[in-house]
Design goal:
- Helix 9 packs across helix 10.
- The protein starts with 13 loop residues before the first strand and ends in a 13-residue tail after the last helix.
- The strands form eight sheets. An eight-stranded parallel β-barrel has the order 21-22-25-26-27-28-33-34, surrounded by seven helices. It has a seven-stranded antiparallel beta sheet with strand order 4-3-9-1-2-8-5. Strands 13-12-11-10-14-15-18 form a seven-stranded mixed beta sheet, with helices on both faces.
- A hairpin with a 2-residue loop joins strand 23 and strand 24.
- The chain is built from 13 helices and 34 strands.
- It folds into three domains: about 120 residues, Beta Barrel (Elongation Factor Tu (Ef-tu), domain 3); about 140 residues, Nucleotide-binding domain of ferredoxin-NADP reductase (FNR) module (Rossmann fold, 3-Layer(aba) Sandwich); about 300 residues, Aldolase class I (TIM Barrel), CATH 3.20.20.70.
Length: about 625
């Protein structure tokens, strides 16, 4: 479908900085802080004033998300006079910049919308728009307008441009009602799922194909959740009535360039941002959404559960699946005055070698967008010192102690393992993945042969549960994980830092003395997720007696990240870099997991572990 133009012609998008005039919660929305009204002042040419149905890409300038969010226009105020909704030109050739106040209704849902809803007066907003096509003007006086949830905003904005009482308006919400202040309908119908406003129920209780015919509607305009739009398409076409639907899709550019927002139509894939968002319902194809995983559906039957977050690594039980990652949490005692470390599931010690190490020379830390590079070089007091001084303090803490064992050769690993085996340390994590040492470390984890040999050598020395920590640098991480399991590993942790290079542009030289350095943080999470997913999928195919738990590492910053890793098959997660940014990260992850499990009806971690595989 081509871009629909109104009498003023096609609008011209601008990229500019807007200023927040008002940011407040919307009265009537339930919960009370779920929907916000944000009014933004922007400088715009006359032909850049938005028209009904269009949207803007909005991003809080001080925010941390990468992309703007597509938000539909709800209400526009400019210095131009308005006549029946159309912008009246003061001068037909006036092209000077004008100030427009544009109001948006925003459902606070993800990170981007949360940042927008947290803005204050005079804060800056990155603004791109107006974008997309518009709602075609009605050709009759028998008009039906339908809005569902936050989808009320664009159709209410459209309704405002029509003559008063020239249309009927249908609004549906889960609970409460909002966004209707400018609606001057002939008849206003409201339905709520919980009966808190209007008729109890959803859209079908208000309108169907027979009521469309009875009420004489000739044109229908709608925006809302996809299932609602599919229903509107069905009843409109069954009644033989023209129908326009405003669609929604994830977007990156809003300009038709990235091709990430395509939706399926009878004319092939169309761009929601450029070919839409308003489409003739007859070209749209609504496919049934994929059902939730079996575990998700089963858990819904459970009511008032008291979640059990415990996980088991062989015969050792962790009270919860959140572990302080090696190298980022010291020996646990360093943070005990900052957070309640006793709430953690386990603490993995700093990487330990048989001899004390001073680590690498030169710059050791370098911040990057959404990540941190490091070249520490396994600085540690040595295993004998650890056993005498740091280990007793760790064992006094409630979290399970995990000794991270490293070395420069198989012989030094063996020597260190012999010492640790004589202690009360419950679990050993065999580190064959450190990217910042010249010998040992990741060199041993690059092939199935060397990784299996290292695992087998340590397995022969100790009967303690043995986790093998793998490097993401290996060509086939899954094959290496399986070879370690075959050699006696009781668990797999992955992945250690990725390798990267940083250049100091003032000096024109690499930042780190060793050139390459480890890279971790939120930026690596999708790659780590892929590795965890692949390894867990392979382990799931093994006989039950050979299956071992996987501990996920890589960019965990929130409880949602932890849930994602667990659904990918991980039994536990290690939290590293984000502890430096927010020492409370692990506590927040634990509390978030509890609330998530209670809300979903999950009794144990195993109830949803691997449900995405």
């Amino acid at each position: 479908m081509s871009v629909t133009k109104d009498c003023n012609g096609k609008t011209i998008p601008v990229y500019t900085k807007g200023t927040v005039a008002v940011c407040k919660t919307v009265s009537g929305a339930v919960p009370s802080d779920s929907v916000y009204s944000i009014t933004i002042n922007i400088e715009a040419k006359e032909k850049s004033i938005p028209k009904p149905g269009q949207f803007f890409m909005l991003r809080a300038t001080k925010g941390k998300v990468l992309l703007g969010r597509p938000i539909s226009v709800y209400h526009v105020t400019t210095q131009y006079l308005k006549s029946k909704g159309a912008v009246k030109k003061e001068a037909s050739k006036n092209t000077s910049s004008q100030c427009a106040q544009i109001e948006f209704l925003i459902l606070k849902k993800g990170k981007g919308t949360t940042e927008l809803c947290s803005l204050e007066k005079n804060d800056s907003v990155d603004v791109l728009g107006p974008l997309g096509n518009v709602f075609p003007r009605p050709k009759t006086k028998k008009v039906c307008i339908i809005g569902g949830g936050i989808g009320v905003a664009p159709v209410a904005g459209f309704a405002e441009t029509l003559d008063d009482k020239s249309y009927d308006f249908y609004a549906c919400f889960k609970s409460g009602k909002y966004g209707l202040k400018n609606v001057k309908a002939n008849k206003l119908y409201v339905a709520t799922d919980d009966g808190s406003a209007g008729t109890k129920g959803m859209l079908p209780v208000l309108i169907d194909s027979e009521k469309i015919k009875e009420r004489g509607y000739k044109e229908i305009y709608a925006c809302g959740p996809t299932p609602m739009l599919a229903y509107v398409k069905h009843i409109a076409e069954k009644a033989g009535v023209k129908c326009w639907l405003s669609m929604e899709s994830h977007m990156a550019c809003g300009m038709g360039v990235c091709l990430g927002c395509t939706i399926e139509t009878t004319e092939g894939y169309k761009r929601c941002c450029k070919d839409g968002p308003v489409f003739d319902s007859r070209v749209l194809i609504f496919n049934k959404p994929a059902p939730a995983a079996e575990q998700i559906l089963e858990a819904r039957k459970n009511k008032n559960v008291k979640p059990d977050l415990s996980v088991k690594i062989r015969d050792v039980v962790l009270p919860n699946p959140v572990i302080g990652s090696s190298g980022t949490f010291g020996f646990g005692t360093e943070y005990k005055d900052v957070i309640d470390v006793n709430k953690l599931g386990a603490i993995a010690s700093k990487g330990l070698t048989i001899e004390p190490r001073q680590g690498n020379s030169g710059v050791r830390l370098w911040e990057t967008p959404s990540g941190l590079m490091n070249s520490i070089g396994l600085q540690n007091p040595g295993i004998p010192h650890f056993i005498e001084h740091e280990l007793p303090a760790m064992l006094k803490l409630k979290p399970v102690t995990i000794a991270n064992l490293s070395g420069s050769s198989i012989e030094t690993y063996i020597e260190g393992a012999k010492l640790l085996d004589k202690t009360d340390v419950p679990i050993i994590e065999l580190n064959i993945s450190c990217p910042n040492v010249a010998a040992g470390g990741a060199a041993l984890g690059m092939s199935c042969t060397t990784a299996a040999a290292a695992t087998k050598a340590i397995r022969a020395i100790t009967k303690k549960p043995l986790i093998v920590k793998l490097t993401p640098q290996a060509a086939d991480v899954t094959a290496i994980a399986l070879s370690c399991i075959e050699a006696g590993a009781d668990g797999i942790s992955l992945c250690n830092s990725f390798q990267g290079v940083a250049i100091d542009i003032e000096k024109g030289r690499p930042v780190f003395d060793k050139i390459k350095a480890g890279f971790g943080g939120p930026a690596v999470r999708p790659i780590a997720m892929r590795l965890v997913y692949e390894v867990c999928a392979a382990i799931k195919k093994l006989p039950l007696e050979k299956q071992v738990p996987v501990i996920a590492i890589g960019g965990v910053a929130t409880w949602e990240d932890a849930v994602e890793f667990i659904m990918a098959g991980a039994a536990a997660v290690e939290v590293g870099t984000n502890t430096f940014a927010n020492p409370n990260t692990m506590i927040e992850v634990i509390e978030g997991l509890k609330k998530f499990m209670k809300r979903k009806g999950f009794k144990t971690i195993d109830d949803f572990r691997g449900c995405a595989l």
